[in-house]
Amino acid sequence: MEIQLNKTPESPEERKKLIGDIIKEEEELFAQSIGYIQRLMIERLINCGYKLSDMEINKGYEVIVSDKEKFVTSVDILLILEGKVVFAIKCTPASIDSWERFMIAFCRVVEPYQIPFAMVTDGKEGRVIDVLTGEVKETMDIPSKQEFLKVLPDIKFIPYSEERLPKERRILYAFDAIKCCPTCNI
Q: Where would I find the Type I restriction enzyme R protein N-terminal domain in this sequence (predicted)?
């Protein structure tokens, strides 16, 4: 796509269209980079002994915030062992620090229990989050499937506090609003 430089739009409609074209192009590039990071992480997981059947890719969850507000949120990769989601991975090409809080809220809200572990990664750097303790480690290391299966009986799958759940849903809703740019449909 070529956008003319040093051109004054002839109308507000033309200006709106030019801005919309720029935003759409940036979003397409962003989506392509997420797909690349996601492929890198899937390869890494396969090298750790996981099978594609242990993963769910881009799973959407409907989250009800109130009687009038609900939305669908998703994460890039879920690891499922013995019928439980044990690890959620968010792939992002920029600012992995800012997505840590999204992952904590996501892991507390979407299942009837807290998903115990999460990762935010740009494919090169990563943060692994122990959702139950809040501990964050700067690492790209994910336990192998065999290592995970050994500790799985000791992992607690507990629900998040009912009184704090509305706050986590709102946090997740705010992140969803950020990634849903209102100018996308221009």
A: 41-143
Task: Give the residue numbers spanning the domain of 158.
Answer: 12-179
**Tally of domains in the chain:** 1
**Spatial contact of 91 and 123, defined as CB atoms under 8 Å apart:** yes
Alpha carbon 142 to chain centroid distance? 17
Helix extents (H) in the chain: 12-47, 96-109, 145-151, 165-179
* Helical (H) or strand (E) element with 78: strand 70-81
What residues contact 9, with CB distance under 8 A and at least 6 apart? 15, 18
Q: Over the stretch 71-124, which tens digit does the pLDDT of each residue have?
A: 999 999 999 999 999 999 999 887 788 899 999 999 999 999 999 999 999 888
What DSSP designation does 143 have? -
Residue 6 belongs to some domain of the structure: no
Classify residue 68: in a domain, yes or no: yes
CATH code of the domain covering residue 71? 3.90.1570.30
